[in-house]
Design goal:
The chain is built from four helices and five strands, in the order E-E-H-E-H-E-H-E-H. It is globular. The protein has one domain: STAS domain (Transcription Regulator spoIIAA), CATH 3.30.750.24. By secondary structure, the chain is an alpha/beta fold.
């Protein structure tokens, strides 16, 4: 499993390189959580999600709530069509913006 990140203008861009599913979720959570507590990070963009299950939804919602408490933001970008449809069906996209490109996500945050 590969998860990488870059800090761009106080926004942490996390590339999950695949699924947000039960078998990967704890490693991704452990990787991302420190950024949610870093006051220098004003937002997190998660990109390249191919598939998401209920544990992935749980992580996304938890990150959103944690960031919201300190007035930071969460966005998703470059998600697969299947992942996008899943987020749309579950209405996650009603409170977490999903962008086509990383550049759009960074500009919005």
């Amino acid at each position: 499993m590969t998860v990488t990140h870059e800090i761009k203008n106080n926004i942490c861009v996390v590339d999950v390189h695949g699924s947000l599913q039960l078998d990967r979720i704890m490693k991704i959570k452990d990787y991302v959580t420190p950024f949610t507590k870093d006051d220098a990070v004003q937002g997190i963009v998660i990109k390249n999600i191919t598939v998401v299950d209920s544990s992935g939804f749980g992580l996304i919602i938890s990150l959103y709530q944690t960031l919201q408490k300190r007035n930071a933001k969460l966005a998703l970008c470059q998600v697969s069509q299947m992942a996008y449809q899943t987020f749309e069906f579950s209405e996650v996209n009603a409170f977490i913006n999903i962008y086509s490109t990383e550049e759009e996500a960074l500009a919005a945050l």
